[in-house]
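Lecture notes, structural biology module. Today: joint structure prediction for complexes of two components.
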Amino acid sequence: GESVGLHLPTLSVQEGDNSIINCAYSNSASDYFIWYKQESGKGPQFIIDIRSNMDKRQGQRVTVLLNKTVKHLSLQIAATQPGDSAVYFCAENGGSGGYQKVTFGTGTKLQVIP
Amino acid sequence: DTGVSQNPRHKITKRGQNVTFRCDPISEHNRLYWYRQTLGQGPEFLTYFQNEAQLEKSRLLSDRFSAERPKGSFSTLEIQRTEQGDSAMYLCARTSGGNTGELFFGEGSRLTVL
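The predicted structure, tokenised, for the full assembly:
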């Protein structure tokens, strides 16, 4: 069935360093993945997405890598800033036709050390 | 601003009482989602509306839960005879109207059942 999960519950990173958050999924038919960021007291916020016909996608300071062979994706944040401190969720979107059936993983808490 | 307002932001109630949460998305988006998030976990899908039609419900939505979207604009989520296990953040989300998997979440309604 659909399942996404994260390897580490907490990640501490020095300000200015790069962060890498990993995620594994179990459904080999999954073809659309999304990363969300959730700050304390707020709802999740979309960061970046990737479809299975790509293995890399870049945004502003963020890069998502998808390895379909081992069913793994990662979120890389360059030059991590204090404002990046949050919980990060990988999610799989199994919807179609405008219906977004988003299944979230457990989350990794990113702590940025000033 | 994600274009989704939820109220109340916090609700404390005694076990057995009924509670109702309201979600107001900006008007022109016809798809609306409810999620539940417990501490330390990712959001879990509860139900989905397209206009006023409730098209999908999760198994998590027991018969004590009911959601409505009477005019295809705002939505309500009611929990009857609350139990301590209902304590969670209830999140409402809309889509962008396009084909991306981006969900725009409100800030949620946090329920504490004593």
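Point to remember: Chain A has a mean pLDDT of 90.
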